[in-house]
Design brief:
By secondary structure, the protein is α+β, with helices and mostly antiparallel strands. It is built from 30 helices and 50 strands. 30% of the residues lie in helices and 28% in strands.
Amino acid sequence: MVEEEVKRGFGPLLAVLSSDGVERITAKNNLTFAQLLLPYVDIQCEIKDPAGTSVSTRLIFDVRDIRREGFLLTLTVLPSVLHESVHTVASTSDATVAFRESLLRWAEPFEHEFLRTYIACLFVVSTNDADPLGELSKLIEMQHTQQHGSPTEEIGPAYCVHPKWMLPNTYKYYILVHDMCTNGEKEASDTFASMCSTYGVENCYFLRLNSGNGDGMKDIWKKELERKNRGLESGLALARKKILSKSAGSVEEDQESNQDHPTGLGSSLENCNCSYVKQYGSNLNASDREEISNMVLKFNQEALTPFVEKQLRTMNEQITARRGISRSLTTGMKKWFGAAAVQSTNSTTISYSMESSEMQMRRLADLCFVFGLYGFAFQLYQSLKKTFAVDQAWLHHAGALEMAAITFFMTNPQMPAKQYSQHYMENALNYYTTTCMRLIILLTQENDLFAGILLERCSVAFGNAKMLRKMAFHYVLAGDRFFKATQEILALECYKTALREYSQKRWFFAEDSILYTLARDSRSLDLALEYSEELFRPTSVQCEEQQQQFFSIFLELMVRRCGPNSVSLTLPVTVIVAKLVYVVYGNVSEQAVRELVGEASDVKIMLPSWNNLEKAAFQYFFGLSRKFVSVPSVTDEFSDYSVTRLARLNEPLRLRIALYNFLGFPVALKQLFLCLKEDYVELEKSIVDEVVLKPDEECVEVELSLVPRKDLSSIVITGISCSVEHCAKLLNCQIRLTSESRSFLARNRMSRNIQCCTVLSGTVSLPHPSFRIELPAVRYITAFCGQIYSVDFDLINEGYVAIQELCLVTNRPSMVSLYELVVSAEGEFSWEPSNYQLSKTDQNILIFHPKLGIVNSGERKKLRIAFRAPSEEIAGYSLSLLFYCTGDNGMCRQERHLISFDTRQLLEASMSSIGDAGDLCLLRVRNLVSERDSLLVKVKLLGVRCIKQPRGACPGLCTKQSISLMPLKPRDVILECEQSDNLCFTVGGESLSPESIVWLGTPFDSFPVWPEISTLFPQSSSASVSSFVFPNRSSSYYGVLWKADIVNKDGTLANITGETVVSFCCHLFPCESLPDTLSSLSLFEKTVSKSRIDEAFTESGRTQYDSSSLMCSVKCAASSISHDFTVERFCHLPIEITVKNNDKAQRHCNLVLQCYMPEGKGIFNSSQGDGCRTVSSTELFGSSFNSLQTRSSIGQPLIISNCVRKRASLSFGSIHVFRVCLSVAMASVYNVTCFDLTAQFQDDPETVQISLPLTFVSVTDKRASVKKQITVP
């Protein structure tokens, strides 16, 4: 046993570095390359010691992929992994084995020894790699850099220590893996030949894998991997949780919660048993497995063993040569005569260089030890312990003593105990704990699990020594520590073992304590009752209070196993009254229950609306000929319970009951359940364990339920059955139900006039469908007017009945749109609008009918619902959604959802006709968010779509029967706070369908399609709907689609979309009647006649200026910049202003760029007259003017420019770029268009002012970003 653990825990350590192509090949077998070798690492070999003696030994290689695994960090990760490894076993003996194996495997190596250091490295590449030889060179360079490069070079996971190497010249072995599932055998052979010519034939191996199907063969990897990775994954998760808890300052809270409740983190025994089992090696046949075994044998016999033998001889020769002349006479005299006098136990720190003779000898001894040369290693450890003792290097001395004891045992594992040098190990432990202050690190952390493991081992040792009382005492101590470590199974095992020693030996207090613990915490009820019965004796030494506690635990166990007595007593109403509050029939959410019982008055008013929606859905599926009967889901205290109501099969019938205690002392009611006139085995009843009714208390409400599993013609509920504790006994009692009011009960609690009631119900043979819509029952949404919300949700069939059809009914037809997921013939998924129609009896109710097909039990169907917030500013605007389904057996089920909107205005829009011919219209929009508001909102117009066209010719539009709008020139329209803009459209004769959208820029595909309400019925029959949605039936209605970027007052960003409905006023306005601020909007694009353009540009007598002469743009390096203002005070923003000369007269021009501070100044100077008006700042100087943007002054933090004025001369067709650097000193959103650009053309005395496009840059503080990332849970 010990020999096996030593060989497995201290075998030769081999490192693996593999390419990605290799891991892809081995991943076909659910393995890594290092895991692939696990079943073949146990070999028998011959090796020569430095003296030339051949020794037959058994080696168990420890193969590790150093990029994926290694030795764990001792203080942070290793304790958690050890804790979780013990969680996977169920007995103390197995727990000790699991603890020891995990400790030997994962504990990091110490600095004073060379054990658990890598002796060789396997470099593995595959023929699937693009360049196998190049990949091999990278792996070799990676290993060399890690071993001989910077000590901070990381190669493995962060939770592992850096790999350590035993020899400076680590042995390297090269493996080429070929996947037999692919072709290219010749190319693989050529690659392997190149490897052999470069690295030597003896150092290379060609491994072929995945030759065939290995499903019928034994899985030899599963047991090895389970043993190796026991508790590793859950331990790493636990370690991470502890580290995060410490960083958050909640270590004490986590420790208290761990002591009270076992957290587990997926590592409890039950979770481990339920883990998913993989099939390993499914593509490895017998030849592949034989090939892997041959590779390991060849690697050891022809490569590693000769290398190790050579290293042993070389190191032995070097050490012998050094020892001959290295020490002086003084050192020798000190060694022989001063060693006995050196008895100091003071902690001293002695360090040796790795090239010193002492460390070279320790390296030689450890190398002999890991390769099974225990005799030669013992001699070296004997010499080392004397040398270290002379130097007073107590840590090295203790390590040499420890290894001397182990190697002495390994030379003859069958030696008698008296021949074993026990004093070596005892002295080593003494030096570790006293002189070196190296008490086991795991115990210094006061971990209950590790203390419990050691105490259990002490108990076993005391038992072997026949010291039974000490054995039992230490088992109790171990059980207590296991309980604190949340290892309940191990704790009970220790207590059971201790009980065998204390039982019937007059150790009453100790025996009672153990029995009480076993009775309280045992998982087996029968065993718990056995232990609790033993607590009662004819003469007990326990006090009265303690005996009552014992008796309480006994009664609790009896109730749990046997239940109360069969005799039932009916409690009079003068003692306890059970008042019926409400009854719920079937699966109804709590929110729906509150609505239906009318707890809120506003919800009470909405009840008729729900009935109308239910009726509309019923008639949609079953027609008008079938009589509609509303099936109540809830009945309250005012209902008539003498009427039999329907209870749904396999669904709970829930009763909410208020209990009143009219006695003067507390009464404890236990095991409460519903009492029936006739009991049926087909009814499942819920039980409430205990209810304490205190005197003079208002009431205590309990909820009891039963589930009918079979068709029952009559279910009569008469009251509540419960158990009352009286004189140390449990009595079965019954409390009758009443529906009297609370005030009546208060007045007549001592009278006999309180009338009892019964709940009558029955079931049908057909079960009802049951489904769940994953939407909150009630949602309160604060939105902007016209804001659009899209929610994807699942329809889940939770019942046993297949759902035949589903519909969605709503009372707000213009606010809801339903989509269903459609799969095309090519297998592509897309969202398509569902079919819809108005109710035949109520035209204000809209019904959506998605084509979902049959939804079987447990099946999910994805749907998408879109909401459009009301177009007016309103509070508490309710939207009712009723999902109604029918099963394949004809039964129905509904689910209700209520959404409430609170809206505020964001965008104001209006549209009217301008011009003499009526072929132009004007869209005026304005951002209503104030600059003084805490919100920063930037609105961008996306497009316009038609919602409703008037029937017949529109007055004032000549003879056009329908209207279509097209922008004169699409452009970006962006509105800051309190900013307005105007956009011109041409009026055509072909109407737009609701699906057609006139985009002002790049199409935006996130807008839903709303139902065409006006087309569902003739105009005469849809008057109620049209008047509700569209007040003016003679006007056209259009939707202005917009997107808004919002910066909240806390600095968070939000992006929303919406649609603002505007009516198109058909009345014509001549251009002269427009306000002065809009007069420039008569300057249209190329579609307008040249004479009108000439008139516009000769306004106020100014010389005509062609707007296409110059084109310019403003560009910043990035729209969002993160800057650390603590490192550098100013954040620099490089700005490029590009100007191109496209003058039709081919004139050159002189440009002047002047920087100004935009604090309190807008892009347009209001003091300038009409003669200074220029093109819109959102246009890149197109062919003509098309709009004028007005904006209020916008303040922002100070911007510093590196220049005040720049000049340039621009010839025709050339481009000039002004490069300016702006500096800001704080985080904000900046308008970097803080420049005045003027141009003077050749032979033109006039100076033209050019407006630049608006450009914004967001500067954030990097400190805030880091802080936000840290606070994220």
